[in-house]
Structure formats: C-alpha cells, structure tokens
C-alpha cells in the first residue's frame, strides 16, 4: 500500500506540473496600444515619449507563448537581406536555434514556416505551385504571403512572409538592424525610426517586468525606404519579450551550465489591418505608443531583451505621377526627334 501511495503521489505531481506548464501562457492584454499620432512634418526636439495623443487602450491582436529558449535566429549572415524573405529569421520560417528549443519551432518551425506540413513534417509543402501552405501560420494567413522568391520560372507561388527585423533592446539602448543588406536602398533602421522602451521598475536585463514602449518614424520614412519596400505599407508590428536566462547544471555535470534552460519568450502582434483598417501607410507615418506588463506571463521573471519586427505586406513600386508625366514628355521628345531624322 505504501508503494501504491507513493506511485499515486508521483503521478499527481507530474499532472500538476503539466497543468502548471499548460496554464503559463501569454495574454493579448499583456501588451497594449495606447497612443497613435500623425508624425508632424517638423518634429519638436525633444519629442514627447510616448506620443501625446491617447486612444482607448487596445490589446495586442494576438500572441504566442510562452515558448522555450531564445527568439533566434534573427536575419543575419552574408545571404540575409532582411526584407522579409522566406527563411530569413525566425518569423520568416527559419528553424529556432540555441541550446534550448521549443517543440513548436524546432526541428520544424510550425508557427512561422509557410510550408510546414503537419501530416508529413519530413515532406514539407514544396515551392512548386502545389498550392500547399501551413494552415496554422501565426499572425498571418497564407493569402498574406507574397511571391518574391526571385526565381524566373513562371512560378507564382507565394514564398515570402514579409517580416522585417528592426532590432533589439537589451537595456543599453535599442540596437537597430539594417534593412535591405547588400541591396539598393540599404538602410539602418535607426535612421528612419526611433524605438524605445522604458521600465516602471528596474531595467531591461534586470528586474523590469512592465513599462512603456514607443515606435516613432521619421516624417520622410516612405521616401527613404522606397527602393526597398515600394509604397511602404506595413500591416503588422510584433514585439518579442524574453525572460532572463536560468542557468542550470545537473549534479555532477561537468562543463558550463546550460543558461537557456528555463528561459521563455512570448510574441505579441498588432494587426493594423484590423486596428487601423488597412495597414500603416508610411507616406502618412504615425507615432505609436503603448504599455507592457509581463509580470503574470513570466511569473515574476525579469525581461532579458525585447525584439521588434514589422511586416511589409507587398512590394509595390508605382511611379509617382510627376515621374510618369516626365516619362511621357521624354517619350514624346524622342518620337519627335526620330520623326525628324526619318524626314531628313
């Protein structure tokens, strides 16, 4: 009877542990949008931070987490352009890297890989027009993908999720990424937008669990990014919050402890197709501001870092009216000169 009681107690502990893990998750109310303001043509320095025009508090549109490990990889390396191409970073379908990984992100990225095939993970949907997509994409639908694979094969298969990595805050100021690396229009994100986070108590990388955030673009951001993103409409903003590392070392284990064990992260998405009715048109840029409180979600653990992504929904480079008019004038002049040459 003694051993039966011990066995029952053991299984109850396992059950309670699983229930505890299952109920540790994000809520859309953890991160909110509270401020929306058109960017003035001439900004005042210093500009209010967060923006001064308040709106009714709006929860994030969706969230995923808590996820194990780190929110890597970010777009990096020689082949990375950081313009939202398939496989360039975690949110574009790359498999999670690091010492500790989540079942949803490795060895297959079930959340963000458009071609993950749940029925046969070892045979993902192909990029050959088979019309197969991952029906469980986080934050976006398969219809939101775009065909930017660069292959001149007559294939209209949509291959690009479109998530652009803006950078990361680790407590020493926001570290901006580069968009369009190696391409015409390559731009340091920090030259076109100011992103900041402040903590109610402590600092990021320490005891911080709550505070405020703001994203404030430059008035001329649309012109600066035109070569990379065309008309410059962004329809999603994703904020990734990660807990501090928990270094664990098994008794008798040699070497360095695994500092990824016990760390988690959650991703909060703002879908501006819903919130603002059609995406953020950068030709009329908005300052955005809000709040975050991860105390409940993270169980009191401090925030290690915050990563920021924005999604460019489509590449559209329409020639503005003045340029198209000029082309017509040039064409007319060339036709006139050609006609005169033929008469001679």
Automatic annotation (TrEMBL):
Endpoints of the signal sequence: 1-22
Official protein name in the record: PEP-CTERM sorting domain-containing protein
Lineage of producing organism: Bacteria, Pseudomonadati, Pseudomonadota, Gammaproteobacteria, Alteromonadales
Keyword Signal (UniProt): yes
Alphabetically ordered keywords of this record: Signal
């Amino acid at each position: 009877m003694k051993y039966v009681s011990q066995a029952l107690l053991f299984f109850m502990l396992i059950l309670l542990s699983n229930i505890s893990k299952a109920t540790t998750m994000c809520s859309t109310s953890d991160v909110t949008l509270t401020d929306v303001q058109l960017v003035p043509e001439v900004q005042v320095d210093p500009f209010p931070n967060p923006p001064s025009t308040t709106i009714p508090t709006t929860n994030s549109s969706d969230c995923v987490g808590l996820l194990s490990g780190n929110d890597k990889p970010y777009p990096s390396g020689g082949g990375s352009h950081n313009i939202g191409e398939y496989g360039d970073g975690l949110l574009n379908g790359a498999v999670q890297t690091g010492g500790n990984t989540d079942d949803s992100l490795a060895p297959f990225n079930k959340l963000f890989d458009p071609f993950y095939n749940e029925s046969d993970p070892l045979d993902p949907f192909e990029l050959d027009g088979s019309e197969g997509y991952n029906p469980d994409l986080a934050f976006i639908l398969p219809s939101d993908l775009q065909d930017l694979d660069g292959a001149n094969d007559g294939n209209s298969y949509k291959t690009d999720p479109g998530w652009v990595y803006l950078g990361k805050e680790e407590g020493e100021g926001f570290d901006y990424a580069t968009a369009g690396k190696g391409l015409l229009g390559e731009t340091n994100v920090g030259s076109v937008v100011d992103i900041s986070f402040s903590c109610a108590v402590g600092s990021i990388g320490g005891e911080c669990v709550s505070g405020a955030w703001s994203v404030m673009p430059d008035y001329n951001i649309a012109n600066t990014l035109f070569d990379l993103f065309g008309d410059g409409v962004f329809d999603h903003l994703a904020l990734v919050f990660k807990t501090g590392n928990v270094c664990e070392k098994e008794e008798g284990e040699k070497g360095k402890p695994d500092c990824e064990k016990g760390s988690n992260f959650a991703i909060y998405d703002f879908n501006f197709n819903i919130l603002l009715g059609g995406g953020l048109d950068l030709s009329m840029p908005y300052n955005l501001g809000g709040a975050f409180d991860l105390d409940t979600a993270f169980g009191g653990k401090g925030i290690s870092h915050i990563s920021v992504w924005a999604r460019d929904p489509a590449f559209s480079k329409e020639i503005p009216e003045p340029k198209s008019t000029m082309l017509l004038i040039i064409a007319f002049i060339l036709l006139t000169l050609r006609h005169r040459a033929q008469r001679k």
